[in-house]
Structure formats: C-alpha cells, structure tokens
Amino acid sequence: MARIIGGITSSHIPAIGNAIERNQQQEPYWKDFFDGYPPIHAWLEQQQPDVAVIFYNDHGLEFFIDKKPTFAIGAATQYNNADEGWGIKTIPPVNGHEDLSWHICNQLVDDEFDITICQEMRIDHGVTVPLQLMWPGYSYGHMKVIPVAINCEQHPMPSPKRCFNLGRSMGKAIESYEEDLKVVILGTGGMSHQLDGERAGFINKEFDLMCMDKIVDRPEELLHYSIRDLVEIAGAQGPEFIMWLGMRGALIGKVKELHRNYHIPISNTGAGTMLLENK
Predict the structure, then answer these.
(1) Which listed residue, 45, 118, 119, 241, has the most CB atoms within 10 A of its CB?
(2) What's the CA gap between 30 and 16, in Å, rounded?
(3) Structurally, how many domains does the chain consist of?
C-alpha cells in the first residue's frame, strides 16, 4: 500500500527561483533562508519518496479570475512550467502519476468535494520553486508529482477548515492506494505577507510562529479562523496558509516535527520551513 512518510512546508516566492538561477544562496540577504533546507535534503535523500503531492496556488497562469476553481487537481502524465518570467530559463517538465491522481479524485468526489480534474495543466512558481528547493539542480526527474491548486487569489476562498478536511480526505485516499509508494506532502506559500495596498510589507511574526507551533500537534486550533481573519492578521496574501493546512490534514498518522526554520523578510514575506514526519 502507499504510505505518507511526511510533510514539508515551504515558501514559493518567485524571487527564490531567481536567486537560485544566480547562485545567490549564500549572499547575506538569502543565506539564512537557504540554510534552512539542508536537513530536508538529507531526509529526502534518506527516505527516497516516489511521489510528491504539492498544495499550491496558481497565480493567474492556468486559472485567471474569469475561471477560478476552488480546488483543482492534476491528472496528467507531465506538467510544463509556463511561469510569468523573472528572467530565468524554463525549468524541466515535471512527471505526473495519473493512476494515483485518479484514485484521489474518485475518493474526493465520494467524500463530496467538488473538484476540477485537469488532464492538462500548466504550473507556475507555486510548484516549481518548492521542487527546486527540495531537489536542487533539477534533481527531481525521478519523482512523480501531483499538483493540487487551491484558490487563494479570488474571493470567495475555501476556509482553513475546508482545506484541512480536503487534506484529510486525500490522506485517506493515498493510503488506500494499492501500489507500494512512498509519498511526501508539500504545503507551500506564505506565511504572513501583503504585497500591495496601504499595508504593503506587513508581516506578523508572532502569528507565523504560533501557526508553526500549533500545526504540529494542535492543528484543530487553527481551523476556527476565517479567510477574512487571515487577511486581517496575516496580510492580504496571508490566506496562502490554507495550503499548509491541506498538507497537515493529509498527515493521518502520528506526526513529529523533525526540523523548522523561519526567516524574515524574504521579498516582504515571512518564510517558514518545516519538516514533519508521519508514522
């Protein structure tokens, strides 16, 4: 049977891809951020997962404001990067796992989630930046990836509780899949940040650290927040935290924190990195 071995949280800020392209990882602005990843690299090297399920938000590339699904799941053999630029080269394609994707989609519909199933799907930095961070040098070619896009751009957005329950349903689906696979779940985005408006540059470090504490073994204490709460407390782009809750919901075993790192500011964002073991 497939088994979920752990979850990882990470920022997906597009400027990270630019820093990687320019080999700026050890420059003062970036060093403390990138220094948070070697323990994760070591764990991934040891565990050798077969599949990565990535919760992310599409930034107007595949889904613009005229057509914005609440939840969209890839069910393709391959995903091509078609990001908005930043002057970096297009990274290699990402391989999908069609059979597992369809198994998950069937379970979600049975659990009364309304999802958009994408047999073709372009991906942006929400997927590609975490892949570059976890598997440097485009060394993810052996991995199969299932992208799960959650609406964080256009109101109305799904609540933290709804996203946690989506992850819970996905976790049950994955661990009922008959093939012997190791699966890692990535929750990307955030943490607190606001990129425009009167509060541009707003970061709430205290709230970020509280969320990192509670998401390990008290995630239910984070589910009472509304999207409006997250906007007020964590900035206009703070609702990206719902991707973290999707990841945490999928960890249906005994969860143990193995590593964390928090650094501000990176591109006016609170960047949190966590490695959670799931047994």
Answers:
(1) 241
(2) 9
(3) 1
Query: What is the domain extent for residue 8?
Result: 3-278
How much is the mean pLDDT over the chain?
95
Among all chains, which residue has been given the structure tokens 């949280």? 9
Distance CA 69, CA 67 (A): 7
Predicted confidence (pLDDT) per residue in 50-109, tens digit? 999 999 999 888 999 899 999 999 999 999 988 756 666 778 899 999 999 999 999 999
> Looking at 193, 224, 259, 263, which residue is catalytic?
193
Tell me if residue 193 is catalytic: yes
- 8 pLDDT exceeds 70? yes
Query: Where do runs of H (alpha helix) occur along 79-204?
Result: 98-110, 125-134, 160-174
For position 154, which CATH number holds?
3.40.830.10
105 and 75 Cβ atoms separated by less than 8 Å: yes
- 125, 142, 155, 263: the catalytic one is 125
Active site residue 125: yes
